[in-house]
Specification:
By secondary structure, the protein is α+β, with helices and mostly antiparallel strands. α1 packs across α5 (about 175-185) and α20 crosses α21 (about 795-810).
């Protein structure tokens, strides 16, 4: 929120500099992020008086203006169409630094004397763009009649703007009045409330406003004002709006924005001519109802969208933006002024669903006080009457079924020293709370001496005694709290075993050349359908996990409208990330460790399973002198899994083929540890890959592993063995087995026969052909044998070969090929 300091000083009188104001408010919890200065570049620019305007002797579209600014009296050549004698203007002298009014980018130049069509010009009368105030360059900036002639423009028009970061819980400070209340409490100065219109004598007609959704609209005030004249706002209002970051439009629209900034209450003005039957209906949108909003975008409304309607149609999206058909126009003479309070959650959902976040919705989303509606209405009417003296309020309606009243809160007097470690005198505590408009007293409450306060309705952040303690501490000053070193015995830190496992997974995969990614934990039903070819139905398994019997965990407040549920698998987000990365690189190797959310039952918290998804896409290696280009395949993902699981301490690891909707037939497998399934492994079905935006023909290999399931199998500590001083021996074995026998089963039989002497078993060739019986295959393995304490003799090697032959025959029915 941008706060012009001059505006703030009108509400609370202070001699503090902008930097001091920012510091005091920051220390009290309102973080000032930036201070910008308007007018710091206005050296040699003064308030000038136009004495006379004469035609240029050699140009029809130029004039000669004689301008006086103190001791300076200049004749300047200008083409401004709005310059008149008697005006107060911004006069720049030679040497002034100004913005180029004809450049699209903010470009500055130094003003120099020039001769224009034979007439010498020693200065310039400036437009708003040349001063850096706005993009307006059609005419010169005309100052107010009371502008003091001869003073530097910086002293008259310069401004300091403090930008605050208003957190969601501080909605009471999301306005000029709110900031003034905070500053007034800090410096013990009264807040000057701006003039409000007296509406007590205005006729009331409840038929003007009908609220059909009181759960979404606690209060709605409508005021009909006749004899208004739409025109540009006065310069002082335009300057304040511009300084606060709001573009001036017209007096009526500017007043609604001005009051929103001043009081924090959004307003809207309808052209009364275009309200059918001249009345307002606050209701939920009808099925299929549409509206064109002020940004000229047609929007389809859902039944949970709150709309402001007339007798026939929606004329505004409540709390977000008005409709184009009922906007205030240049010929508008009668308006209906709206000031209302809406349900914060509904406005937040609507703004996100429509992808339309406005200044109004930003305030309603935080939860405004319904009692703020009335003073905002009074202030807007007062400003309309000020700018339109002939305007007349004819009727109003105030639909407020359940008024919000101040609440009473008691804080035991001992809470302050208990929570802060320091106490303050009673008079200090009461004075601070009085400044904050809490009307404090000290009373006995259930036998306990307590400070009892009346919490204003606009302080929705005050609900428990600790909140009052915080108010006292921040106004007195957090810097007054004593600095005390902590004492006592620290609790022994024990790392969560699952956290250690996840850290180990991440370290191993990064060392293997993969890059970690982080994705959002929400998805849509369409994402899950895309896990099956042609997205015809939801898959039987979401990645590794079986589809739950209960509905997935729904998101009440999704970050995006399409993210309706918490993910039961990492696959959709991982595949989308791969698709994006393939736009920029030919080789993708990424992994994610995150939680999936599996429903347990109705009204139960979900099972949050730590899960790993890893894999490759595109080329395995970029082509170079040493690596030919080849696409990734099943074995790239399997190779990483083969390294990962043993290093985590998993034992008895096996891979068996399965059928899976999301994976390529014949290239899909299930990973087991000690006989228990812990994950899936395979190449993504080509159609599924295309449905996630991966180009046709790109192979994708992945694995999804349930880390909780891996942990529950009982991981053993990884054993480190010393490097043998003796030379290892490599032996090759060609084993003929039936075609259906998995290579891993043969390798396991070899390991069983070789025992601890086998340090590595590696498949290096597969043969099918006439040299062996039909329906069989020959698998060639290279086995590395090594003893830690001796060189292996030929007799030992013969015994190892014999045991391997026996185990292969017994376990897989294989025979050594001669």
């Amino acid at each position: 929120m941008k706060v012009p300091v001059r505006w703030l000083q009108e509400l609370v009188h202070t001699d503090l500099t902008p930097a001091e104001i920012a510091q005091r408010l920051t220390m009290a919890g309102l973080q000032a992020e930036h201070i910008s200065e308007i007018g710091t570049t206005w050296d040699r620019v003064y308030v000038g008086l136009v004495e006379r305007v004469e035609p240029h002797p050699n140009a029809d579209r130029l004039v000669l203006a004689t301008v006086v600014a103190g001791e300076h009296r200049l004749t300047v050549v200008t083409g401004a169409p709005n310059i008149r004698a008697g005006q107060k203007v911004a006069l720049a002298l030679v040497g002034a630094r100004l913005f180029d009014g004809y450049s699209d980018k903010p470009t500055m130049f130094t003003l120099k004397p020039s001769t224009i069509r034979g007439v010498r010009s020693e200065g310039m009368v400036c437009s708003e763009k040349e001063l850096g105030l706005s993009d307006e360059h059609e005419g010169i900036l005309v100052l107010d009649p009371d502008a003091p002639v001869g003073v530097p423009l910086r002293d008259y028009l310069g401004e300091s703007v403090i930008e605050f970061e208003i957190t969601p819980n501080l909605v009471h400070a999301f306005s000029m009045v709110g900031i003034a209340r905070e500053l007034g409490a800090l410096i013990d100065a009264p807040v000057e409330i701006p003039p409000l219109a007296d509406l007590s004598g205005v006729p009331r007609d409840d038929r003007l406003v009908t609220v059909e959704a009181p759960d979404l609209c606690p209060r709605y005030v409508g005021v009909v004002i006749e004899n208004v004249r739409v025109a540009p706002s006065p310069a002082w209002m335009q300057r304040r709006l511009s300084a606060a970051g709001v573009r001036p439009i017209s007096n009526i629209v500017d007043i609604t924005n001005y009051v929103m900034l001043e009081w924090g209450q959004p307003l809207h003005a309808f052209d009364y001519r275009f309200l059918h039957e001249g009345r307002i209906v606050v209701r939920r949108a009808r099925p299929g109802e549409c509206i064109e909003t002020l940004d000229h975008v047609g929007r389809e409304l859902t039944p949970d969208t709150l709309v402001i309607a007339d007798a026939n149609r929606a004329v505004a999206i409540a709390g977000v933006m008005g409709g184009l058909e009922s906007e205030v126009r240049d010929d508008t003479t009668t308006i209906l002024l709206e000031a209302a309070n809406f349900n914060m959650l509904n406005i937040r959902r609507t703004a996100r669903a429509q992808r339309l976040r406005t200044e109004a919705s930003a305030r309603f989303e935080r939860g405004l006080d319904p009692n703020l509606v009335w003073p905002a209405t009074q202030r807007a009417v007062a400003l309309i009457r000020e700018l339109n003296p002939d305007a007349r309020v004819t009727v109003l309606a105030d639909a407020y079924a359940a008024p919000r009243l101040p609440t009473t809160l008691a804080m035991p007097r001992t809470e302050i020293p208990r929570l802060l470690g320091v106490d303050y005198p009673d008079e200090v505590v009461l004075d601070v709370l009085r400044r904050l408009d809490f009307k404090p007293t000290i009373q006995e409450v259930e036998g306990v001496r307590s400070v009892v306060v009346e919490v204003p309705t606009y302080r929705s952040d005050i609900s428990i005694p600790a909140d009052l303690v915080e108010e006292v501490a921040r106004v007195v000053g957090y810097e007054s709290l004593p600095e005390t070193l902590p004492w006592g015995q620290t609790v022994r830190v024990e790392r969560d075993p699952m956290r250690r496992l996840i850290d180990g997974v991440q370290d191993i995969l990064v060392a293997a050349g993969l890059t970690e990614i982080i994705t959002y934990p929400m998805l849509s039903e369409e994402d899950l359908r895309a896990l099956t070819p042609y997205a015809t139905a939801l898959p039987a398994r979401y990645g590794f996990f079986a589809r739950p019997e209960h509905d997935l965990v729904a998101a009440r407040n999704p970050l995006r409208s399409e993210w309706t549920m918490m993910r039961p698998t990492l696959l959709p987000a991982w595949l989308k990330n791969v698709a994006e990365n393939l736009k920029h690189t030919r080789a993708v190797a990424v992994f994610e460790t995150a939680r999936v959310y599996l429903p347990r039952g109705v009204d139960e918290l979900p099972d949050e399973r730590p899960t790993l998804c890893l894999g490759f896409a595109g080329e395995r290696h970029p082509v170079d002198l040493y690596h030919p280009a080849r696409p990734v395949d099943f074995f790239d993902a399997k190779g990483v899994v083969d390294v990962l699981l043993p290093r985590l301490g998993a034992v008895d690891i096996a891979v068996r083929p399965i059928a899976h909707h999301s994976l390529h037939p014949g290239r899909a497998a299930e990973i087991t540890v000690r006989g228990k399934p812990v994950g899936i492994l395979g190449e993504v079905h080509p159609v599924v890959a295309e449905q996630f935006g991966i180009p046709a023909g790109q192979r994708v290999a992945l694995a999804e592993i349930d880390l909780r399931a891996v942990f529950d199998t009982g991981l053993r500590d990884v054993e480190l063995r010393p490097v043998s001083r003796y030379q290892s021996v490599e032996q090759d074995f060609a084993i003929v087995v039936d075609e259906a026998v998995p290579a891993e089963a043969v390798a396991e039989a070899i390991r069983s026969g070789a025992g601890p002497l086998a340090t590595d078993v590696r498949l290096f060739d597969i043969y099918r052909g006439p040299a062996i019986p039909a329906g069989t295959k020959s698998l060639a393995y290279r086995v590395t044998l090594e003893a830690p304490d001796r060189p292996l003799s030929e007799k030992e090697l013969e015994r190892v070969r014999s045991r391997i032959e026996g185990q292969v025959k017994r376990r897989v029915g294989g025979a050594l090929r001669t």
